[in-house]
């Protein structure tokens, strides 16, 4: 098991993303320079990455898309199923459940949790919603490795603590609150509102500076 | 108009976020060390940031939450309304529309666009959905400054191009595709799937390395 740095992992997933998009359009081959342009990485970087793979390309046609993808996924060790759970079945939670339904065969959201009795017992996008009191038991039983947090800000740390106690090794936090997890748990924080506020701030500045000219 | 670096802007928005959460719990004061701990910033950094503000705190009670927020928003120049539009009324688009409804008085999604005739003409979370062919006309008329892209990957660049032609100065792209915008347009890319895949990757690695011990 070689250790791949976080930035490389991210780049590899971006490659996968683009290759998937190309496959869907019916293409069979890709040139490294196309990949570089699409992903916003230098052609040299792509070539350096490719040196790690057992891939044969030709100058005429480039690389076979499917072989390229297989190599990437082999490096990302994602051939086995990773089970995930989702906490907080609001609009964003539902959007994520529906997105992951069948689209990612190796990533599966096996259970969702909510406090609202209107939601518990129901099924959204093929995923059962349980009461949050069941979280530790079910995460344990399912051996889920990742928890996705889509609860309001005030409940985010509590959700994270329960997930960590239940044994998840990775958390993706969408709640607009900074949460803390112990060492040994990977944390990714994705603040949608913050990103939109930031874009609004810079858009205003750009507009102002144009008007002042 | 002073130029605030992007990292500072982000930190200020995180401060706002935390102060809002505290206000909602009924608190009136905050200590700089609480803020530092909650936001994951050093107390020295918070104190340096505070030196820019006209704020009087006391060692006994800390800073007045509302005054602190007012100062932050003044620095972020966000007292005026920023109009935004959203392209792609799928599950994620609907989640964002419902989130912004009334919650952020200075950020308003004034129109949404979709190609689906089932959606055009309808209203979601108070926002009218227009056909995408109307995008440039409406963005222009409304003087919207920010475009939020929640279309599938294959349509993302097209949506971005239309938004740029219509005159937006900031784009937040949620489509799992790298898009390009000309200089002078702020671009924030937020790839939800990528973040979840990355967390799954690192969670698998952490699990494996524990099992091998």
Describe it for me?
- The structure is a homodimer of 213-residue chains.
- By secondary structure, the first copy, chain A, is α/β, with parallel strands linked by helices.
- Chain A folds into two domains: 6-75, Winged helix-like DNA-binding domain superfamily/Winged helix DNA-binding domain (Arc Repressor Mutant, subunit A, Orthogonal Bundle); 87-194, 3-Layer(aba) Sandwich (Rossmann fold), CATH 3.40.50.
- Chain A is 45% helix and 17% strand.
- Chain A has eight helices and nine strands.
- Chain A has helices at 6-24, 32-39, 43-50, 65-75, 91-100, 135-142, 156-166, 192-212; strands spanning 29-30, 63-64, 82-87, 107-114, 123-124, 127-131, 146-149, 170-173, 186-189.
- A seven-stranded mixed sheet of chain A has the order 5-6-4-3-7-8-9.
- The longest helix of chain A has 21 residues, at 192-212.
- Chain A is globular.
- The mean pLDDT of chain A is 89.
- At the A-B interface, helix 1, helix 5, strand 8, strand 9 and helix 8 of A face helix 1, helix 5, strand 8 and helix 8 of B.
């Amino acid at each position: 098991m070689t250790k791949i740095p976080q930035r490389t992992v991210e780049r590899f997933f971006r490659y996968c993303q683009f290759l998937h998009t190309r496959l869907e359009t019916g293409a069979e081959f890709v040139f490294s320079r196309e990949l570089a342009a699409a992903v916003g990485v230098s052609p040299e970087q792509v070539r350096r990455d490719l040196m790690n793979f057992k891939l044969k390309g030709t100058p005429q046609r480039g690389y076979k898309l499917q072989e390229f993808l297989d190599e990437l996924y082999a490096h990302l060790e994602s051939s086995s199923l990773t089970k995930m759970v989702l906490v907080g079945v609001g609009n964003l939670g539902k959007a994520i459940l529906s997105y992951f339904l069948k689209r990612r065969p190796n990533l599966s959201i096996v259970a969702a949790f909510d406090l609202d009795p209107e939601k518990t017992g129901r099924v959204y996008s093929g995923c059962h919603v349980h009461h949050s009191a069941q979280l530790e038991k079910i995460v344990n039983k399912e051996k889920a490795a990742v928890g996705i947090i889509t609860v309001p800000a005030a409940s985010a740390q509590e959700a994270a603590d329960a997930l960590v106690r239940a044994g998840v090794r990775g958390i993706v936090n969408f709640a607009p609150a900074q949460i803390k997890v112990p060492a040994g748990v990977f944390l990714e924080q994705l603040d949608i509102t913050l990103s939109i506020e930031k874009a609004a701030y810079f858009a205003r500045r750009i507009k102002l500076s144009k008007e002042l000219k």
